[in-house]
Amino acid sequence: MPRINILSPFVADLIAAGEVVERPASAVKELIENSLDAGARNITVEIRGGGAEYLRVTDDGCGMSAEDAGIAFLRHATSKLRDERGLEAIGTLGFRGEALAAISSVSHVELLTRERGAQSGTRVALDAGEIAEMGEAGCPEGTTMIVRGLFYNTPARLKFMKSDRAEGAACVQAALRCALGRPDVSVRCIKDGKEEFFTPGDGRAESAVYTLLGRDLAASLAAVSSGGEGGIGVTGFASAPGTGRGSRGAQYFFCNGRYIRSQLLQAAVEQAYKNSMLTGRFPACVIYLDISAAAVDVNVHPAKTEVKFSDERRVFDAVHYAVLGAIEAPASAPPPAVEASEPKLYSATRPERSTFRVEDTSAPYQTRLDLSSRGAPRVGTPAGGGGSPFRAAQDRREAAGGQPGSFHPPAAWAPPRR
C-alpha cells in the first residue's frame, strides 16, 4: 500500500489553481469581478495570444494601499469577508480570496494600483506566486493587472489548451457576460488590437443588450418584468415564439448581477414556450433575477457559476410567469384602428366595359374606338371620305344596315404590291 505524502505548498497551489483557473477565460472573469467589487465604473480588458500570452485588466476602482497590495496574493486573503456570518449573505462577486493567488501561481503577474486621493501608487511583480519586485510607482487611480505566460509552469494544463483563436473567443465571451450583468459599468474589450465591444455603461439593460448581442437579436426581444412579489424580482428580455434558435447559446441568466448557469431558470423559461415553439428550437433570453442575498447560496461551485436557492419553487414560478406574460402580451393587444377617412387603394369589383368615341374636329383624322368588340379598333380613316375604296365600301355597308367596325374589302379590289 503506498504511503501518504504531504504535498509541498507549491504543488498544493498548482492543484488549487487548476480548480479556479481552468483556462484564460477563467482569469478574465475573476479579474473583472474583482474590478466590479472595487466599485469601478470603467473597465478595459486587453487580450493577446488567446489570453495565455498577455492579459491586462484596467479599472478606475478604489485601488489598494501598499500594505494591501503586498498581501493581496496570499491564499484566502480577501477584503470581502470577515467571519463565518458573512457566508450567510454574500453580496459581492468574489469572497474566497483564491483568485489572485491561483492566477499568480501559474503565471508572471504585474500589479499597478493607487488609492483614490493618494499621491503615488504601488507596483508589485510576481513570478509563480512569489514577489520578485515591489515598490512605489506612478499610475492612475484604480488598479491594473497584467498577466503574462499563463500556465507556463504547468505543462500538463498548457498541453490541453485549445488554439489561440478559440481561447481568445472564450475570453471575449467571459468579458461579455460580465458586462451584460452590469449595464451600469462601461466595459471595453480589445482582442489582438481589435475592439470587440464597448458598452456605454448608462445603466440601461437594453443598451447593453443592443451593444453586446447585436441589433437583430435585440429587435426580436420583448421586455420581461414582474412586480417583485415575495421578494423576487425578475426583469430582462425574452424572444418572440416565432424566433426560436438551434441552441441555448443565447440564454443568459444573472442572479444579483452574477452570471450563473441554472437548469432551474432554464426550465422555467422554456416551459413558458411549451405550446408556442417548435420542438428542437430554443428561445433567447436575458434574465436578471433580484433576490435577497440570504435566499441564495453561491458557495456551491469552484467557479461560482452555479447557485442554490432556498425556495426553488417560488423562483421557478416567478421567472416562468414573468416570461409567459411577456410573450403573450403582443398576442393579446388589439389590432390598430383604421380611420374611416382613409382612402381605399384597391377595389374588389371589376369595372364594366364601355364604348366611347373620341372625335377631334381639328385633326385631319377622326378616330373611332369600340372597346366592346373583340376585334382591333379601326383607326385612321380620312375625314373627307377621299377616294379610298375602304371608305366607299364602308359607307355602302352602313347604308344597307350593317354595323360599323365589321368592314371587309370587296373581292375585286386588291391592295397594290410593294
Question: Could you please describe the fold and organization of this structure?
Answer:
The chain has helices at residues 9-20, 24-37, 66-71, 99-105, 155-159, 164-181, 205-213, 215-219, 263-272, 312-332, 389-399; strands spanning 42-48, 54-59, 108-114, 121-127, 130-137, 142-148, 186-191, 194-198, 221-225, 232-239, 251-255, 258-260, 285-291, 296-297, 308-309, 365-366, 381-382. It has 418 residues and is α+β, with helices and mostly antiparallel strands. The strands form 4 sheets. The chain has an 8-stranded mixed beta sheet with strand order 5-4-3-6-2-1-7-8. Strand 3 and strand 4 form a beta hairpin. The chain is globular. The model is unreliable at 331-387 (pLDDT under 50).
